[in-house]
Amino acid sequence: MTQNGTGKNQIEEAIEIAAEAHQGQYRKGTNTPYITHPYAVGLILMEAGCPEAVIIAGILHDTVEDTDLTLEFIRERFGDAIANIVDGCSEDKALRWRARKTERIEALRSASPEVCTVTCADKLHNLRTIISEYDLIGDAVWDRFHGGVEDQAWYYRSVLGAIADRDVALQKSGGRAKLTTFDDGARAIPDAKDTAPQHEPSDCNDAWKKPAAIDVVNAQLFQQFQQAVAYLFEGRMP
Q: What are the beta bridge partners of residue 186?
């Protein structure tokens, strides 16, 4: 685990920086502190055996987009690799909702596997939260989000399809997505005959020995994201 001069490892430092940056922010329509989201994204990435740089970027992924923290600060504190992932996950809030979502979707088609992997973890946690809230309050959960269920279905299906398009390996593997069009976006439908490859269980300490760069999008997270989209918007159990 990488340590800085203070003796803290960089993951601990990222958590503290993100917690301070997101202070006073809450998840949409709830009293849940916003920091629970980037922290959960980091845990999802860690559990999937991702490299340290990807985990740190996951923890920081919303700081540039939603707080006063700058990309230059992240680059100086954590280096180019992490800053570039955070940059690739950040939306331009100056654009209207549909325009900025479309821009990010198109960018994913040529984004690095690290950016796509963090995006999978980010969207997976969002969907898990929506599913949990839906079980409690039903369709009222969609009142919290732009455009309700229709726009949200378009967005998550399109993100899923863009990542699958970007990573041909996901389509050739057992976790491939069959893509069709739906509401002007790509929809990824799991192939019932396939079983996505699972990563071998790994010791958490081994994760720090992996290189900072990865060659393909994490198939385990892609499959879980794919299943969550199917469960919520297609009404199918994973």
A: 181
